[in-house]
Write a structure and sequence with these properties.
267 residues, alpha/beta, four-stranded antiparallel sheet, 11 helices, globular
Length: 267
Amino acid sequence: MTLLSLRNVTKRFSTPAGDVLAVDDVSLDVARGECVAIVGESGSGKSTIANMILGIYPPSEGEIAFDGATLPARRSLQHRRLVQLVQQNPLSSLNPRRSIAASLRLALDVHDIGARADRPALMASLLAEVGLPASHLARAPAGLSGGERQRVAIARAIACSSPLVVLDEPTSALDVLVQARVLRLLNDLRAKRGLTFVFITHDLAVVRNVADRVAVFEKGRLVELAATEALFAAPAHPYTRRLISAVPVLTQDESDLRDRFMESLNA
């Protein structure tokens, strides 16, 4: 069943030099429970697509529908609850002057989730779900590691029980070992909660670990859409082939080390 649908979506921005076409006549469906990765180099339009899904930018043309109903250009609080965001840099996405408890509680308060007396326990439960102890609620973002901060950002995104999460380069600010753990967490949460992901990234190595399908963007246009394994096995568009050919090649020793590490994570 389709959860998110983009139909002939176009986005233009006005600049002193004239209009800039950022997204050009894009149609894309995302099924409930699916993870669709949107990939492309800088300027390909992938972040603009994410911002339109979130309601930050209205489409210049076309429509975006959620569960069969068109999303308005001006989103109500109820509409905003439907789609949550995990940003690229967890340090900048969390208010440095707020404790972790205050950041999590804000989401619960804004959307009036649970009885007020029950919210501390709910916040502790959210942290447990992303693998953090309740003691972290009293900390400030600066007192956590990058991976811990991103786990808090994920906890905040799932606090509203939103069915759709937009992940904007959620692992690019993390080192490789932490990336693997965060990706495993995201996969576990998607399975447990039945979440739907739109995963914005330039990292094709990450895509293979999380996405069911991949949408490839070039200069604002959707040039290829395919199941992940099929796309990597036989990319049809020349731009997709160039992207895949640019992925760094590992030596056999590096490949064996990576496989052993991934096996240890899954043990």
